[in-house]
Amino acid sequence: MSDRPELLTGWLKILYSMRARADWMQYPSDDRILELLEESGLILSPSIMSANLDLTRQHISSRLSELLDHDMVEKTDTGQGHYRITEKGEAYLVGELNEDDL
């Protein structure tokens, strides 16, 4: 899947356009990372996310830093660089947040 919004099609385009967006949310991969964490219900490392999303680990790590800064994900206490989605991240995915909340 492309990480360029203009290349999204079908229901992905509708879902992407329905969620509030903030200036810092530059890439559809932000949504994909949050969706993977939410759907799996697991704590995951950037490497595991990379393998499942077909994006580079570097890109995943960069986006996780941004998501972490905005309380959409949190680091776990494993000490192994694992992340989980927060309640705010879950609220974003179901469209409960507006742009000001992000």
If you had to describe this structure to a student in words, what would you say it looks like?
It is a single chain. The protein has 102 residues and is mainly alpha-helical. Helix content is 49%, strand content 6%. The chain has five helices and two strands. The protein has helices spanning 10-18, 28-40, 46-53, 57-69, 87-93; strands at residues 73-75, 83-85. A two-stranded antiparallel ribbon has the order 1-2. Helix 3 crosses helix 4. The longest helix has 13 residues, at 28-40. It starts with 9 loop residues before the first helix and ends in a 9-residue tail after the last helix.
Largest sheet: 2 strands, antiparallel
Counting H and I runs of at least 4 residues, what is the number of helices?
A: 5
Distance between the termini: 25 Å
Q: Which sequence of strands runs across the widest sheet?
A: 1-2
Structural class: mainly alpha
What value does the average pLDDT take? Answer: 84
Strand/helix succession: HHHHEEH
- Quantity of strands, as a count: 2
Low-confidence stretches: 10-14
**Rg computed from alpha carbons, rounded to a whole number of angstroms:** 13 Å
Q: What coarse outline follows from CA principal-axis ratios?
A: globular
